[in-house]
Design a protein that fits this description.
Layout (H helix, E strand, L loop, with lengths): L2 E6 L6 H12 L2 E4 H15 L6 H6 L3 E3 L18 E3 L2 E2 L7 H11 L2 H14 L15 E6 L2 H5 L5 E6 L2 H12 L3 H17 L12 E4 L5 H13 L1
Parallel strand pairs: 1-6, 1-7, 2-6, 7-8
Antiparallel strand pairs: 3-4, 4-5
Helix pairs in contact: 1-9, 2-4, 4-8, 7-8
Bound molecules: cytidine-5'-monophosphate (C5P).
């Protein structure tokens, strides 16, 4: 069956970049579940505010993540993030704006949105327990998000809960993309509080997840640690 690795944690904990590097090192598929919630949020913001059947709205949205090239040797060449396509449009940049950041947690708290995306997440990652084939024929998947170990892949062979101090997370985000440190820290803390407070599959460490505090770790060390756990 398919090896499932779940990486969960708060906003800007380094999940996406570490998960992508782990997947590329192992030749697994990398699946960014946050991107799916961001797409639904973007589509909703563009369309205005009329009421919606959220399940149909979400289920009818075509969502695709491009494959990342395998990482061999030491030279980093390929993109570290997949490109994201929503209904055929490249929305890679459009899903990472401040407007999407500030609305995504509310949209992600809608039960019908979660149910519809749960089906898509499992279809991309080998089913609930890794017994279905993964598109692209990969031997394993690394999916990052908030509820992967707790809900999406409850039987995942490896569950990692990545954390880091809020200030450290904000500093990393500013180094990557610029912006005001205090404002970014506030935004992250607020989003985490909303993600932890929602009724359906809130952000939390799964009981059988291993917690890794990356506050004082370089990304290379985090990636090597997780790759080591997969190989053990
Ligand atoms: O990981 P990222 O910051 O892109 O996720 C954006 C938002 O999507 C999160 O703040 C959370 O509200 C939602 N999300 C979620 N469940 C996941 C992944 C993301 O609710 N598995």
């Amino acid at each position: 069956s398919v090896f499932q690795c779940a990486i969960d944690g708060p906003a800007a904990s380094g999940k996406s970049s570490c998960a992508a590097a782990v997947a590329r090192t192992l030749g697994f598929a990398y699946l960014d579940s946050g991107a799916l919630f961001r797409c639904v949020t973007l589509k909703h913001l563009r369309r205005g505010t009329e009421s919606t059947d959220w399940h149909d709205f979400t289920a009818a949205t075509d969502l695709r993540l491009t494959a990342l090239p395998p990482l061999t040797g030491t030279t980093e060449t390929g993109p570290v993030r997949p490109r994201v396509f929503m209904d055929g449009e490249d929305v890679t940049a459009a899903i990472r704006t401040p407007a999407v950041n500030s609305h995504v947690s509310a949209i992600a708290a809608i039960p019908d949105v979660r149910t519809a995306l749960l089906a898509k997440k499992r279809a991309l990652g080998g089913g609930i327990d890794g017994t279905l084939p993964v598109p692209g024929g990969y031997a394993g998947v690394v999916m990052d998000g908030r509820d992967i170990g707790s809900t999406v892949f409850p039987h995942a062979q490896l569950k990692v809960y990545l954390t880091a101090a809020a200030r450290v997370r904000a500093e990393r985000r500013v180094r990557e993309a610029g912006g005001d440190l205090d404002l970014i820290e506030q935004e992250l803390v607020k989003r985490d509080a909303l993600d932890m407070a929602r009724a359906v599959s809130p952000l939390r460490k799964a009981d059988d997840a291993v917690e890794l505090d990356t506050s004082a770790m370089a990304q290379d060390e985090v990636v090597a640690t997780i790759v080591g756990w997969v190989r053990d």
